[in-house]
Amino acid sequence: MNTKTYTPVSLKKRFAAGIYDSCVLIPLLFAASAIAVAVNHGHAISAENLPFQLYLLVLLMVFYCWFWKMRGQTLGMMAWRLKVTDEFGAPLTWTQSCIRFVCATATIGLMGLGWWWALFDSEHQTLYDRLSKTTLSPVD
User: Fold this and answer.
1) Beta carbons within 10 angstroms of residue 11's beta carbon
2) CA 23, 136, 54 angle in degrees (round to 5)?
């Protein structure tokens, strides 16, 4: 954090915001899956179907990147009064939002390494915050 004071956000608050987001994302993914089944003439789609997995992943990416870019907050982050910015406190660009999503997906997918990293980080940032040069801070 070069030019601004960083106030750490606990893993508990990060997790709580994620739970709130899942309350929106689960119905969204169900609806997206229903559309995919309809396009597949009513036949079930295998969980191993790579195009289907990518379709759902892209929907998640659009959700997170849009909220991070346009508002700096997902719905869960709004509820918990958190905001993501770049390391200097400026709003994220589309590129930064996408990098943050990819890094978060990869590092959380590695047994939660992206989150656990914050326990040992000097500023309690997650690994994906470090990799994407973003910060999650409380809203004043």
Assistant:
1) 16
2) 50
Is this model's pTM higher than 0.85 or not? Answer: yes
Helices (H), 44-138: 50-70, 75-79, 94-109, 113-116, 127-132
- pLDDT for res 4: 58
- Averaged pLDDT of the chain: 93
Contacts of 57 (CB under 8 A, 6+ apart): 105
Q: Is the pLDDT of residue 1 over 50?
A: no
Task: Dig out the tokens for 49 from the structure.
Answer: 């179907």
Q: Kindly report the number of other CB atoms within 10 A of residue 136's CB atom.
A: 25
Domain residue spans in the chain?
11-138
pLDDT at 5: 64
**Chain-centroid distance, C-alpha 127:** 13
